[in-house]
Amino acid sequence: MLLTKDIHSEVSIRRLRNCHLFDGMDDLRLGEVASQCTWQSLEPGQIAAGKSQETLFIVCQGKMRVSALSPNGRELFLSDFAQGGHFGVVSVVGASAVSLQAQALAPSLLACLARTDFMKLIREDSVFGGGVLETQQATTEQLISRVIELGILRISGRLYSYLLELAEKSGIVDNHSVLSPAPRHLDLAARIAASREEVSREMARLGKQGLITSTRRALVLHDVAALEQRLHEL
């Protein structure tokens, strides 16, 4: 992992432009923000340095996965952030109560803005502050949805729900969807707050029923409508 304070001004401005929070900010002001950032270059599997409560992380390149860790080390996947995404400070409500980590899923470049600089920017730039407010509202709605899902649905239902979410993102054609690369059972377990063994048993059951086919390269959902029906019946 490489941490730097300054990169070329024009390059840093262009990279920050990928984040919608800076829409409408002129280059002079954005250059000042860039100069306040620490930059992290991460390889796949590396963990970002810094605490989410104290830093705004902006994904200028690559893809990051943010997870919560329980005291016994169990992981709960929260969200993935691609280029232009951001997390930290306002992205996780009540973050001080849990341990969070952000892991690179691809070669990634993060711009890291300290909380004090972030809060000052909110006070001084109303457009930026408005964008932050919209982000906070969307994040809160997403967290409420996750809490409801975890509280109401059994493990099988949470798995169906997430597979359907992945199918929507990947595309559904003639009631089929191909998820490539195939999601790992460990990642599915982290996303739905289950153990890998519980996910493996449920996936094996779906396979025997002809609803999915799993290979190393892809997971094929053969009947998306049937999964939706099962979810609604729970």
UniProtKB/TrEMBL annotation:
Pfam families in alphabetical order: cNMP_binding, HTH_Crp_2
Gene Ontology molecular function: DNA binding; DNA-binding transcription factor activity
Superkingdom of origin organism: Bacteria
Task: Using the record's annotation, list all stretches that form the HTH crp-type domain.
Answer: 153-225
What are the coiled-coil residue ranges? Answer: none
Annotated Cyclic nucleotide-binding domain ranges read: 47-122
Presence of keyword Transcription regulation: yes
UniProt entry tagged with the keyword DNA-binding: yes
One GO cellular component term, please give it: cytosol
Keywords attached to this entry = DNA-binding, Transcription, Transcription regulation
Indicate what this protein is called per its UniProt record: Crp/Fnr family transcriptional regulator
- Which organism was this protein described from? Comamonas testosteroni (Pseudomonas testosteroni)
